[in-house]
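user: Here is a favour to ask of a fellow structure person. I have my own habits and do not want them to colour yours. Could you put it straight underneath, so I can go through it closely?

assistant:
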Amino acid sequence: MIGPSGCGKSTLLQIFNRMYDLTPGTRVMGSVRIGHEEITTTTRLQELRRRVGMVFQRANPFPMSIYDNVAYGPRLMGWSESRIESTVEESLAFTGLWDDVADRLHRSAHLLSGGQQQRLCIARCIAVTPEVILMDEPCSALDPISTLRVEELIKDLVQRYTIVIVTHNMQQARRLADYTAFMLIEPFHRYGSWSNSAPRQSSSQTLRTRAPPTTSAGGSAKRAAGGISRR
């Protein structure tokens, strides 16, 4: 998803795994489904967030060891310790971290570099075998070399998972996206595959929404597809 700041990209991501529940006064209109399950009304939030993981703009490793970060989700799900141990190794190996951290798994995750921390957060996300991974500008705080490694990882991840990524980098969108949603503050969005230089509008998949309400400085109420808003 691409578009100017404040048009609702991150807000739309929050719909997909009910992160908007954490914002008081938020309501959503419309329907969002994974398979036959309605996201907006489900009461199985832990299961929903297992199925729909999220990687944020800035790496946010938990204040615990590298091992415990990746093991956190599987432990919540009640997995056996032997299964958790193998999952931690597999997740770290898939994200290209295993060789770097195998001898320091029980050291603080905050001792890793910024790029390593972001890959650790991706490892933590995939440890619980999600179906969808949401990424909110996952490379915006990284240096070019770390950005390249994360982009290469995303190309590997897309072979296993559905990925929804928000970016302000048009070149990155071009490199990574199969389909692109172009969001504006105007009362419409465009969605389609990439042409030579921009996403081509798909008339059958054009999303429409009302323009966002006017807000005072510091108050960022937004409306995204489906009609999310804050009272």
About this structure: The two ends are 25 Å apart (CA to CA).
